[in-house]
Amino acid sequence: MTSVLDGHVIDLDRVQVAVDGSRWLWTCDVSESGQPLMQRLDGGGTVLTLSEVYVQHGPLTPAPQPVTAAMCRQVLLQEAS
């Protein structure tokens, strides 16, 4: 699932890293106002709305994902086409 915040599309299916280094993951729930609820993974399990995370901890970027064998195969197959 994705969400748009401040004009940026955020992939809620991935761990997000804030400017302050905190790591956040969507809880698969939304607040009464419809905002995605995010849980902090590295510090007590705090739950905030996506906009609160943005305001209190800074803009979010997706955490890097390790390269898998499936990803490599997909790229190689596309190159061969």
Short summary:
This protein is of the alpha+beta class and 81 residues long.
What is the fold's blueprint, element by element?
Blueprint (H helix, E strand, L loop, with lengths): L1 E4 L2 E4 L4 E3 L4 E8 L5 E5 L6 E3 H8 L2 E3 L6 H12 L1
Antiparallel strand pairs: 1-2, 3-4, 3-7, 4-5, 5-6
Radius of gyration based on Cα positions: 15 Å
Distance, first to last CA: 30 Å
General shape: elongated
**Total number of domains:** 1
Instruction: State the order of secondary-structure elements, H for helix, E for strand.
Output: EEEEEEHEH
Structural category is alpha+beta
Strand content: 35-45%
Query: How many strand segments?
Result: 7
- Low-pLDDT runs of 5+ residues are none
Task: Give structural notes.
The protein is α+β, with helices and mostly antiparallel strands. It has one domain. Helix content is about 25%, strand content about 35%. The protein is built from two helices and seven strands; from the N terminus they run ββββββαβα.
Features:
alpha+beta, 81 residues
